[in-house]
Protein backbone atom coordinates (compact mmCIF):
# COMPACT_ATOMS: atom_id res chain seq x y z
CA UNK A 1 0.00 0.00 0.00
CA UNK A 2 1.26 3.49 -0.87
CA UNK A 3 -0.33 6.88 -0.18
CA UNK A 4 -3.09 6.22 -2.70
CA UNK A 5 -5.95 4.09 -1.31
CA UNK A 6 -7.53 2.45 -4.37
CA UNK A 7 -11.07 1.10 -4.51
CA UNK A 8 -12.84 -1.05 -7.09
CA UNK A 9 -16.59 -0.36 -7.01
CA UNK A 10 -19.60 -2.11 -8.57
CA UNK A 11 -22.67 0.17 -8.67
CA UNK A 12 -25.21 0.73 -11.45
CA UNK A 13 -26.96 3.81 -10.01
CA UNK A 14 -24.89 6.97 -10.73
CA UNK A 15 -26.60 9.07 -8.04
CA UNK A 16 -26.01 6.46 -5.37
CA UNK A 17 -22.38 6.03 -6.38
CA UNK A 18 -21.78 9.78 -6.34
CA UNK A 19 -23.25 10.22 -2.85
CA UNK A 20 -21.44 7.24 -1.32
CA UNK A 21 -18.21 8.13 -3.07
CA UNK A 22 -18.16 11.50 -1.26
CA UNK A 23 -18.53 9.70 2.07
CA UNK A 24 -15.71 7.27 1.32
CA UNK A 25 -13.44 10.07 0.07
CA UNK A 26 -13.69 11.87 3.42
CA UNK A 27 -13.01 8.63 5.32
CA UNK A 28 -9.89 7.79 3.30
CA UNK A 29 -8.49 11.32 3.54
CA UNK A 30 -9.13 11.42 7.30
CA UNK A 31 -6.84 8.38 7.59
CA UNK A 32 -4.11 10.32 5.78
CA UNK A 33 -4.32 8.78 2.30
CA UNK A 34 -4.86 10.20 -1.16
CA UNK A 35 -8.12 9.13 -2.77
CA UNK A 36 -7.80 8.35 -6.48
CA UNK A 37 -11.21 8.26 -8.15
CA UNK A 38 -12.48 4.66 -7.76
CA UNK A 39 -12.96 2.46 -10.78
CA UNK A 40 -16.72 1.96 -10.97
CA UNK A 41 -18.12 -0.96 -12.97
CA UNK A 42 -21.82 -0.95 -13.86
CA UNK A 43 -22.45 -4.66 -14.40
CA UNK A 44 -19.13 -6.47 -14.24
CA UNK A 45 -18.88 -6.84 -18.01
CA UNK A 46 -15.20 -5.86 -17.88
CA UNK A 47 -14.28 -8.08 -14.95
CA UNK A 48 -11.82 -10.17 -16.97
CA UNK A 49 -9.76 -7.07 -17.79
CA UNK A 50 -9.42 -5.77 -14.22
CA UNK A 51 -6.08 -5.93 -12.42
CA UNK A 52 -7.43 -6.73 -8.96
CA UNK A 53 -4.00 -6.70 -7.31
CA UNK A 54 -3.83 -2.90 -7.46
CA UNK A 55 -6.94 -2.37 -5.29
CA UNK A 56 -7.03 -2.08 -1.51
CA UNK A 57 -10.79 -2.62 -1.19
CA UNK A 58 -13.74 -3.86 -3.27
CA UNK A 59 -17.22 -2.39 -2.72
CA UNK A 60 -20.29 -3.80 -4.44
CA UNK A 61 -24.03 -3.35 -4.55
CA UNK A 62 -25.75 -6.74 -4.21
CA UNK A 63 -27.98 -6.29 -7.26
CA UNK A 64 -26.58 -4.74 -10.43
CA UNK A 65 -28.16 -4.23 -13.84
CA UNK A 66 -27.49 -7.63 -15.37
CA UNK A 67 -25.77 -9.61 -12.64
CA UNK A 68 -25.70 -10.24 -8.92
CA UNK A 69 -22.69 -9.12 -6.91
CA UNK A 70 -22.41 -12.67 -5.58
CA UNK A 71 -21.65 -13.94 -9.09
CA UNK A 72 -18.91 -11.33 -9.44
CA UNK A 73 -17.41 -12.39 -6.13
CA UNK A 74 -17.20 -16.00 -7.32
CA UNK A 75 -15.20 -14.86 -10.34
CA UNK A 76 -12.92 -12.69 -8.18
CA UNK A 77 -12.23 -15.45 -5.63
CA UNK A 78 -11.63 -17.99 -8.42
CA UNK A 79 -8.78 -15.73 -9.54
CA UNK A 80 -7.15 -16.12 -6.13
CA UNK A 81 -7.97 -12.55 -5.08
CA UNK A 82 -8.72 -12.18 -1.38
CA UNK A 83 -9.01 -8.41 -1.13
CA UNK A 84 -11.53 -7.26 1.50
CA UNK A 85 -15.07 -6.94 0.08
CA UNK A 86 -18.05 -4.90 1.31
CA UNK A 87 -21.52 -5.75 0.00
CA UNK A 88 -24.40 -3.34 0.54
CA UNK A 89 -28.12 -3.50 -0.21
CA UNK A 90 -31.43 -1.80 0.53
CA UNK A 91 -32.75 -5.02 2.12
CA UNK A 92 -30.70 -4.27 5.26
CA UNK A 93 -27.53 -5.71 6.77
CA UNK A 94 -29.13 -8.75 8.47
CA UNK A 95 -31.17 -9.76 5.43
CA UNK A 96 -28.08 -9.27 3.26
CA UNK A 97 -26.11 -11.71 5.40
CA UNK A 98 -28.88 -14.31 5.08
CA UNK A 99 -28.92 -13.79 1.32
CA UNK A 100 -25.16 -14.35 1.09
CA UNK A 101 -25.44 -17.55 3.13
CA UNK A 102 -27.65 -18.99 0.39
CA UNK A 103 -24.67 -18.72 -1.92
CA UNK A 104 -22.28 -20.06 0.75
CA UNK A 105 -20.43 -16.74 0.82
CA UNK A 106 -18.54 -15.72 3.92
CA UNK A 107 -15.45 -13.67 4.71
CA UNK A 108 -17.07 -10.46 3.44
CA UNK A 109 -18.54 -7.40 5.14
CA UNK A 110 -22.18 -6.36 4.87
CA UNK A 111 -23.77 -2.93 5.09
CA UNK A 112 -27.16 -1.32 4.69
CA UNK A 113 -27.62 0.99 1.73
CA UNK A 114 -28.45 3.90 4.05
CA UNK A 115 -25.60 6.37 4.32
CA UNK A 116 -25.16 6.20 8.11
CA UNK A 117 -24.79 2.41 8.27
CA UNK A 118 -22.74 2.35 5.08
CA UNK A 119 -20.36 5.04 6.36
CA UNK A 120 -19.86 3.32 9.71
CA UNK A 121 -19.09 -0.07 8.15
CA UNK A 122 -16.78 1.31 5.44
CA UNK A 123 -14.85 3.36 7.99
CA UNK A 124 -14.21 0.31 10.18
CA UNK A 125 -13.18 -1.88 7.23
CA UNK A 126 -10.81 0.73 5.80
CA UNK A 127 -9.24 1.23 9.24
CA UNK A 128 -8.76 -2.55 9.50
CA UNK A 129 -7.10 -2.83 6.08
CA UNK A 130 -4.76 0.06 6.92
CA UNK A 131 -3.72 -1.38 10.29
CA UNK A 132 -2.77 -4.64 8.61
CA UNK A 133 0.07 -2.89 6.80
CA UNK A 134 1.20 -0.67 9.69
CA UNK A 135 3.87 -3.04 10.95
CA UNK A 136 7.54 -2.19 11.22
CA UNK A 137 8.65 -3.05 7.71
CA UNK A 138 5.62 -1.65 5.88
CA UNK A 139 5.76 1.63 7.78
CA UNK A 140 9.47 2.03 7.16
CA UNK A 141 9.01 1.12 3.51
CA UNK A 142 6.19 3.62 2.97
CA UNK A 143 8.05 6.49 4.65
CA UNK A 144 11.35 5.78 2.87
CA UNK A 145 9.67 5.40 -0.54
CA UNK A 146 7.61 8.57 -0.19
CA UNK A 147 10.61 10.53 1.14
CA UNK A 148 12.63 9.50 -1.91
CA UNK A 149 9.84 10.74 -4.18
CA UNK A 150 9.73 14.10 -2.39
CA UNK A 151 13.53 14.39 -2.53
CA UNK A 152 13.41 13.75 -6.28
CA UNK A 153 10.71 16.40 -6.61
CA UNK A 154 12.92 18.86 -4.72
CA UNK A 155 15.70 18.12 -7.21
CA UNK A 156 13.29 18.70 -10.11
CA UNK A 157 12.28 22.06 -8.60
CA UNK A 158 15.94 23.09 -8.49
CA UNK A 159 16.63 21.87 -12.02
CA UNK A 160 13.53 23.67 -13.28
CA UNK A 161 14.76 26.90 -11.74
CA UNK A 162 18.13 26.68 -13.44
CA UNK A 163 16.51 25.83 -16.78
CA UNK A 164 14.60 29.14 -16.76
CA UNK A 165 17.43 30.84 -18.67
CA UNK A 166 15.32 33.63 -20.09
CA UNK A 167 13.82 34.73 -16.80
CA UNK A 168 16.70 34.34 -14.34
CA UNK A 169 20.01 36.20 -14.64
CA UNK A 170 23.04 33.92 -15.01
CA UNK A 171 24.73 35.94 -12.27
CA UNK A 172 21.99 34.98 -9.82
CA UNK A 173 22.32 31.31 -10.73
CA UNK A 174 26.08 31.48 -10.44
CA UNK A 175 25.97 32.94 -6.94
CA UNK A 176 23.51 30.29 -5.78
CA UNK A 177 25.55 27.44 -7.25
CA UNK A 178 28.73 28.84 -5.70
CA UNK A 179 26.94 28.76 -2.36
CA UNK A 180 25.87 25.13 -2.86
CA UNK A 181 29.38 24.16 -3.94
CA UNK A 182 30.94 25.90 -0.93
CA UNK A 183 28.62 24.15 1.54
CA UNK A 184 29.40 20.74 0.07
CA UNK A 185 33.15 21.30 0.29
CA UNK A 186 32.80 22.40 3.91
CA UNK A 187 30.51 19.58 5.03
CA UNK A 188 32.03 16.70 3.08
CA UNK A 189 35.80 16.91 3.06
CA UNK A 190 36.02 13.39 1.71
CA UNK A 191 34.22 14.51 -1.46
CA UNK A 192 36.59 17.35 -2.27
CA UNK A 193 38.38 15.53 -5.09
CA UNK A 194 35.08 14.65 -6.75
CA UNK A 195 33.68 18.12 -6.25
CA UNK A 196 36.69 19.71 -7.89
CA UNK A 197 35.91 17.75 -11.06
CA UNK A 198 32.43 19.27 -11.20
CA UNK A 199 32.04 22.74 -12.68
CA UNK A 200 30.28 24.91 -10.09
CA UNK A 201 27.93 26.12 -12.83
CA UNK A 202 26.55 22.63 -13.44
CA UNK A 203 23.86 21.65 -10.90
CA UNK A 204 22.87 18.61 -12.98
CA UNK A 205 26.27 16.98 -12.41
CA UNK A 206 25.99 17.61 -8.69
CA UNK A 207 22.66 15.77 -8.63
CA UNK A 208 23.69 12.90 -10.91
CA UNK A 209 26.83 12.20 -8.89
CA UNK A 210 24.78 12.15 -5.65
CA UNK A 211 26.91 15.00 -4.30
CA UNK A 212 23.90 17.25 -3.84
CA UNK A 213 21.74 15.97 -0.98
CA UNK A 214 18.07 16.66 -0.39
CA UNK A 215 19.13 18.99 2.40
CA UNK A 216 21.34 20.97 -0.01
CA UNK A 217 18.50 21.21 -2.52
CA UNK A 218 16.20 22.31 0.30
CA UNK A 219 18.61 25.11 1.24
CA UNK A 220 18.90 26.22 -2.39
CA UNK A 221 15.12 26.32 -2.92
CA UNK A 222 14.75 28.18 0.37
CA UNK A 223 17.20 30.79 -0.97
CA UNK A 224 15.26 31.00 -4.25
CA UNK A 225 11.97 31.65 -2.46
CA UNK A 226 13.60 34.19 -0.16
CA UNK A 227 14.97 36.02 -3.21
CA UNK A 228 11.61 35.96 -4.97
CA UNK A 229 9.86 37.39 -1.91
CA UNK A 230 12.46 40.14 -1.76
CA UNK A 231 11.95 40.89 -5.47
CA UNK A 232 8.20 41.29 -4.98
CA UNK A 233 8.86 43.59 -2.04
CA UNK A 234 11.09 45.77 -4.23
CA UNK A 235 8.44 45.87 -6.98
CA UNK A 236 5.84 47.13 -4.52
CA UNK A 237 8.02 50.13 -3.66
CA UNK A 238 7.91 51.41 -7.25
CA UNK A 239 6.10 54.74 -7.43
CA UNK A 240 3.13 55.30 -9.70
CA UNK A 241 2.00 51.67 -9.60
CA UNK A 242 -1.74 51.06 -9.92
CA UNK A 243 -3.61 49.78 -6.90
CA UNK A 244 -4.71 46.71 -8.88
CA UNK A 245 -1.13 45.74 -9.81
CA UNK A 246 0.10 46.42 -6.26
CA UNK A 247 -2.59 44.10 -4.87
CA UNK A 248 -1.65 41.38 -7.38
CA UNK A 249 2.04 41.56 -6.43
CA UNK A 250 1.21 41.55 -2.72
CA UNK A 251 -0.93 38.43 -3.17
CA UNK A 252 1.92 36.66 -4.95
CA UNK A 253 4.34 37.74 -2.24
CA UNK A 254 2.09 36.48 0.55
CA UNK A 255 1.53 33.23 -1.34
CA UNK A 256 5.28 32.65 -1.52
CA UNK A 257 5.63 33.43 2.18
CA UNK A 258 3.08 30.72 2.98
CA UNK A 259 4.87 28.22 0.75
CA UNK A 260 8.22 29.11 2.32
CA UNK A 261 6.77 28.58 5.81
CA UNK A 262 5.58 25.09 4.83
CA UNK A 263 8.97 24.32 3.31
CA UNK A 264 10.60 25.21 6.63
CA UNK A 265 8.76 22.25 8.20
CA UNK A 266 10.08 19.77 5.62
CA UNK A 267 13.14 18.75 7.66
CA UNK A 268 11.20 17.98 10.84
CA UNK A 269 8.09 16.49 9.23
CA UNK A 270 9.77 14.44 6.49
CA UNK A 271 13.55 14.02 6.71
CA UNK A 272 13.70 13.71 10.50
CA UNK A 273 10.86 11.16 10.57
CA UNK A 274 12.56 9.11 7.83
CA UNK A 275 15.81 9.04 9.81
CA UNK A 276 13.99 8.22 13.07
CA UNK A 277 12.17 5.25 11.55
CA UNK A 278 15.52 3.72 10.64
CA UNK A 279 16.05 3.13 14.37
CA UNK A 280 12.76 1.97 15.86
CA UNK A 281 11.65 -1.15 17.69
CA UNK A 282 8.23 -2.77 17.65
CA UNK A 283 6.48 -2.92 21.01
CA UNK A 284 3.02 -3.97 22.16
CA UNK A 285 0.63 -2.11 24.42
CA UNK A 286 -1.60 -3.63 27.09
CA UNK A 287 -4.36 -3.83 24.48
CA UNK A 288 -2.14 -6.04 22.31
CA UNK A 289 -1.85 -3.40 19.58
CA UNK A 290 1.68 -2.99 18.22
CA UNK A 291 3.43 0.33 17.73
CA UNK A 292 6.94 1.53 16.90
CA UNK A 293 9.01 3.13 19.63
CA UNK A 294 12.07 5.30 19.16
CA UNK A 295 14.35 7.49 21.28
CA UNK A 296 15.42 10.88 19.97
CA UNK A 297 19.00 12.06 20.34
CA UNK A 298 17.80 14.16 23.27
CA UNK A 299 16.29 11.12 24.96
CA UNK A 300 12.67 11.96 24.10
CA UNK A 301 10.43 8.98 23.34
CA UNK A 302 8.57 9.00 20.03
CA UNK A 303 5.64 6.61 19.78
CA UNK A 304 4.52 5.68 16.28
CA UNK A 305 0.92 4.65 16.85
CA UNK A 306 -2.15 4.91 14.62
CA UNK A 307 -2.56 8.67 15.20
CA UNK A 308 1.11 9.27 14.36
CA UNK A 309 0.85 7.17 11.17
CA UNK A 310 -2.09 9.30 10.03
CA UNK A 311 -0.16 12.50 10.79
CA UNK A 312 2.89 11.25 8.84
CA UNK A 313 0.81 10.34 5.77
CA UNK A 314 -0.97 13.71 5.82
CA UNK A 315 2.40 15.49 6.02
CA UNK A 316 3.65 13.65 2.93
CA UNK A 317 0.55 14.71 1.00
CA UNK A 318 0.85 18.30 2.28
CA UNK A 319 4.50 18.67 1.30
CA UNK A 320 3.91 17.06 -2.09
CA UNK A 321 1.23 19.69 -2.81
CA UNK A 322 3.49 22.45 -1.48
CA UNK A 323 6.32 21.43 -3.82
CA UNK A 324 3.86 21.50 -6.73
CA UNK A 325 3.00 25.06 -5.69
CA UNK A 326 6.69 26.01 -5.71
CA UNK A 327 7.05 24.59 -9.21
CA UNK A 328 4.10 26.69 -10.39
CA UNK A 329 5.44 29.88 -8.77
CA UNK A 330 8.87 29.44 -10.36
CA UNK A 331 7.55 28.89 -13.89
Automatic annotation (TrEMBL):
Recorded superkingdom: Bacteria
Listed CDD domains: REC
Alphabetic keyword roster: Coiled coil, DNA-binding
Coiled coil regions in record: 242-276
One example GO MF annotation: DNA binding
InterPro entries: CheY-like_superfamily
Protein name as it appears in the record: DNA-binding NarL/FixJ family response regulator
Species this protein is from: Frigoriflavimonas asaccharolytica
Amino acid sequence: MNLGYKILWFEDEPASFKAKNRLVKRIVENFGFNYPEPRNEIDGANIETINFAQYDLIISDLKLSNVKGTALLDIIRDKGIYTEVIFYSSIGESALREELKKFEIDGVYCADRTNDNFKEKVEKVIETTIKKVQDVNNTRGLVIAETILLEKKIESVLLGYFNETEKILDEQKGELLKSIHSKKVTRHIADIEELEKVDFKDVKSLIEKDILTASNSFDAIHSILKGKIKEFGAQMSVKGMSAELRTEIEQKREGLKTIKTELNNFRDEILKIRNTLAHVVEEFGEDGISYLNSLNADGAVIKFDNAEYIRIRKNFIKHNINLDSIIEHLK
